[in-house]
Design goal:
Number of domains: 1
Shape: elongated
CATH topology: Rossmann fold
Structural class: alpha/beta
Number of strands: 5
Strand content: 5-15%
CATH class: Alpha Beta
CATH architecture: 3-Layer(aba) Sandwich
Length: 195
């Protein structure tokens, strides 16, 4: 008896289909794993105080800059770096509540204006952290962004600089599914090249 084999074109299509299915399944697994990591991140600023030489605040969400000012005014940090600031913005525009913070010295605040991404935040703040002789930093961003931000900073900074995640509420309550899915995709992308 002769066995019937698939023509070469059909075998090629079958291999492509199996490969596509395997890729899809792996993609779903990686997406689900990253999703679990991101959504389990809690707002740490509500639960514990942090003390460090400096704080690096990543702009892009409400409550972040205010939390950095709070840390500085309470003496929990000695220098505040605000990263990702628009090139035309002034300090008092970024923090309109400045007058309520008493005797904060403007010289203790550095505005980093070059970065446009989380990776850029890490790359552009490292020289500032080194120049300010910060042995440790409080990394301030939203709880949704913290997983990717923390991993990016740990991969970009030397191991001698300790990084303490200090997440804040985004100010809008719970993140919607689209925001979470977008952050998961960004985190998967960063996992390929940034950390």
């Amino acid at each position: 008896m002769k066995s019937k084999s698939l023509p070469a074109a059909n075998r090629k299509r079958a291999l492509w289909a199996v490969g596509l299915l395997a890729t899809l399944i792996l993609g779903i697994i990686f997406f689900a794993r990253e999703y679990k990591q991101i959504v389990r991140e809690e707002v740490s600023s509500w639960k514990k105080d942090v003390t460090a030489d400096c704080a690096v605040v990543l702009t892009g969400g409400s409550n972040r800059v205010r939390e950095g000012f709070d840390l500085l005014s309470r003496g929990q940090i000695r220098k505040l770096i605000i990263s990702g600031v628009n090139s035309s913005s002034q300090l008092r525009e970024i923090m309109p509540l400045w007058s309520f913070y008493g005797d904060i010295n403007e010289k203790d605040i550095v505005l980093e204006r070059r970065s446009l991404t989380t990776y850029g935040n890490a790359q552009q703040t490292l020289p500032l952290v080194e120049a300010l002789q910060c042995r440790d930093i409080a990394l301030v961003t939203s709880s949704l962004h913290m997983f990717r931000a923390y991993r990016t900073f740990v991969a970009s900074y030397p191991s001698q600089v300790l990084i303490y995640p200090h997440s804040v509420n985004s100010g809008r309550g719970e993140s919607d599914l689209l925001e979470i899915a977008t952050e998961v995709l960004k985190s998967l992308f960063y996992a390929l090249w940034a950390y």
